[in-house]
Write a structure and sequence with these properties.
EC number: 3.6.1.-
Strand order of the largest sheet: 10-9-8-11-13-12
Bound molecules: guanosine-5'-triphosphate, zinc ion
Keywords: Cytoplasm, GTP-binding, Hydrolase, Metal-binding, Nucleotide-binding, Ribosome biogenesis, RNA-binding, rRNA-binding, Zinc
CATH superfamily of the largest domain: P-loop containing nucleotide triphosphate hydrolases
Distance between the termini: 36 Å
Subcellular location: Cytoplasm
Radius of gyration: 22 Å
Order of helices and strands: EEEEEEEEHEHEHEHHEEHHH
CATH topology of the largest domain: Rossmann fold
Helix content: 25-40%
Largest sheet: 6 strands, mixed
CATH architecture of the largest domain: 3-Layer(aba) Sandwich
Oligomer: single chain
Number of domains: 3
Number of strands: 13
GO molecular function: GTP binding; GTPase activity; metal ion binding; rRNA binding
Protein name: Small ribosomal subunit biogenesis GTPase RsgA
């Protein structure tokens, strides 16, 4: 275990195939390949590595340091890691296109299970009436304890602005920056968001040098345009205290790694009513004297959320 302790430590900031970009504590980027055939390192991992060329810009990853957490999704066939050692998950949704509550809930469940704090960001609040509808759909999430922030990263009108402003686009953008900068200043934040929500806009706002950095990495890894579809770590400040991790979009957020009996526990609104069921192994679907069903009846659990619980529960029950 200690045999690699004397090697340099580095941070995985990007990866493409079997090539990784390792950042040294001084901020230098080195292209590394893992030693073994199978590599499980992901962006956010800290690794022990050593140089393999005389100029010191290529190396080999010898070992991975223990992880604090790992956010991943899992369907029937494969596991897909997002990133490791996360302090925060920022789930970006928008007034338009209408977001899938099921996908949102899946991401939140995976984050709960991995013990990662969540921030929900609603973009395009300049678009009414879509914004009001989205706000309504997010109300249960606020009520169950998630922080929900609203922004208009690229507003087309001055709707939603408190005072008339000569440049609504700029004032919305400045307001978003002022709101987000302090919240993301420390630790690593992974950004997840379905296509079209404004994820590129958000990353470019918070990391103005993102496009240049991505191009540079693509050249280094010789992967051309492909790297833009990969996960990438960006420092938010010169002191390297805060980081934003951009990740590619995905179709389905599989949560096959969640244990069926724990499902309700990872849903804070359901969790609040656990411990009051007649049966210790209650599935909260059909049992008499179920605390969750009683709470649903009393309107203390949103109908949509309970429907999502049923769907996800059935999905986990089908697992072979
Ligand atoms: N009205 C409005 N439009 C916005 C806002 N933010 C972003 N958009 C628009 O939404 C569209 C998607 O923004 P992008 O930043 O490209 O979104 P993305 O999530 O990276 O999308 P993909 O590239 O498809 O993954 C663009 O046409 C933006 O101009 C906003 O606050 N209000
Ligand atoms: Zn129950």
């Amino acid at each position: 275990m200690t045999q690699h302790a004397e090697l340099d430590i580095g941070l995985i900031v990007a990866g493409h195939g079997r090539h990784y970009v390792v950042m040294t504590p001084e901020g230098r980027e080195v292209i590394c390949q893992p030693r073994g055939k199978k590599s499980q390192v992901v962006v956010g991992d800290r690794v022990r590595w050593q140089v393999t060329d005389s100029r010191g810009d290529a190396g080999v990853i010898e070992a991975m340091e223990p992880r604090r957490n790992l956010l991943y999704r899992q369907d029937e066939w494969k596991t897909k890691s997002f990133a490791a050692n996360l302090d925060r998950l920022l789930v970006l949704v928008a007034a338009e296109p209408v977001f899938s509550e099921s996908q949102l809930s899946r991401a939140l469940i995976a984050a709960e299970e991995a013990r990662i704090e969540v921030l929900i960001l609603l973009n395009k609040v300049d678009l009414e009436p879509a914004a009001s509808l989205a706000r309504e759909r997010l109300a249960p999430y606020r009520a169950m304890g998630y922080e929900v922030l609203e922004v208009a990263l690229k507003a087309r009108s001055e709707a939603g602005l408190k005072s008339a402003d000569a440049d609504p686009l700029r004032s919305h953008r400045d307001a978003a920056l002022a709101m987000l900068t302090p919240r993301l200043a420390k630790g690593s934040t992974l950004v997840l968001g379905p296509s079209g929500t404004g994820k590129s806009t958000l990353v470019n706002l918070l990391v103005p040098q993102a496009q240049a950095a991505t191009a540079e990495i693509s050249t280094a890894l010789n992967s051309g345009r492909h790297t833009t579809t990969h996960t990438r770590w960006y420092w938010l400040d010169g002191g390297r205290e805060g980081a934003l991790i951009d990740s590619p979009g995905f179709q389905e957020f599989g949560i096959q790694h969640i244990q069926r009996p724990d499902l309700a526990h990872w849903m804070p609104d359901l969790r609040a009513h656990l411990g009051h069921c007649r049966f210790a192994n209650c599935s909260h679907t059909h049992e008499p004297d179920c605390g969750v069903l009683a709470a649903l009846e009393r309107g203390e659990i949103a109908a949509n959320r309970y429907r999502i619980y049923q769907e996800l529960g059935a999905e986990l029950d089908r697992r072979g």
